[in-house]
Amino acid sequence: MTQKKDEILYERAKKVLPGGASRNQVLRQPHPVYAASASGSYLIDVNGKQYIDFSANIGSLIHGHAHPKIIEAAYEQMKKGTAYMVATEIEVEYAEYMINRIKSFEKIRFLNSGTEAVMHLTKVARAFTGRPKIAKCEGAYHGTYDVIEVSQKPNPNTWGDKKRPNSVPHTAGVPKGVLDSVIIVPFNDIENTINILEANKDDLACIIIDPMPHRINMLPASQEYVNTIYDWTRKNGSLFCFDEVITFRVHYSGMQECYKVQPDLTALGKIIGGGFPIGAFGGRDDIMEVLDPICQYYKYPLSGTFSANPISLTAGLTAMKLFEQDAVNNLNALSDKARSLISEAIKIAQVPISMSGEGSIIRLHFADRVPMDYRENYYNELNQKEAIKRFLDYLYDHGIICVNSLTFFLNTTMTDKEINILADTLLDAFKEVKPYIK
Ligand SMILES: Cc1ncc(COP(=O)(O)O)c(C=O)c1O
Question: What is the distance in A from the centroid of ligand 1 to the CA of 276?
Fold first, then answer.
């Protein structure tokens, strides 16, 4: 039997790339999908099979693949140069645009990834406050910086008491000093979070919250949780920070638009690059001053070879201008329609499956209620491992790509057609895996 192109590629890949890929998300058994091309919501693999892509490269493609206006803008810029060691007009223009768009932004710094955005945000918080520790939620994903990875995926052997979770290293060899510098709090649990913050109040530079953390449960942080932590930070001199690398797509100015209080600093990434690598963080002018070399409060030298490169910024600004309030509303309305079709499918198939997310993000859970915290989600995923694997395989086999956490990102090129295909395929998939759900 002749081997298919993706089988051959995987065999070659395993010889030269650890695990056979550069990012673990693409790994699937018996082999990854190898993209040949993509346009809008559709992706074609190297064997010619077509998929509807609900992964949007983990939420980053708000206008789908290869949007003509974004590609044209980026191409025009490419012809004029891809990176310079001098400043550009687009950097100023995009910064002005974002500061108009996001109420909490007085200044912004452009970087190359969400990881960089969160890393520099937390380091700026330390520089500004002169304090060494940061607090984050158990199970929250904020990228791959060793500090922020702490307790990204703890397990029952390591996580400790729920009221005072351990700081668990994510990779081997993390220095103890790193673990000591990260305080872990339980998401949406006001009492225990405040108790933990109190115990560290003199050392805490900031608390960083993803307002709808996808790895925990994809439920929004409650108003009360956000307000209480914000008030606590005002009294205790630490900064209140958001990671909106994923959630910025949910509303015109991100999830922060839903809360009464504003973050001091916010990390962004993904959609603001229009499909090209990007990260950024922004917020209060007096804090951002630590980055300003001619300011008396300068404390944080920060450079980056590709930071603010004109390709990502041109593509990003074009994408953002195509995602103004009307486009956000239309996409969210389509996503609500998808939600009701999926609810219907769950009812018809009579499966214990629940749904979370907001706006253009939908996450499924193999449980009759959405898990309340990281630990409940951990046990759900462990117990339903077999059903989840079969479910994902079914979707890929039937031409639907989603994120392995069972998260579906919609994009502005989608219409009723793609939503109906999704709902129909999910219904069939629910029926198929029902016998495997425990
Ligand atoms: C909430 C959140 N923060 C940060 C990151 C890191 O972004 P990047 O992969 O661009 O480094 C991610 C990536 O998925 C994310 O979801």
Answer: 14
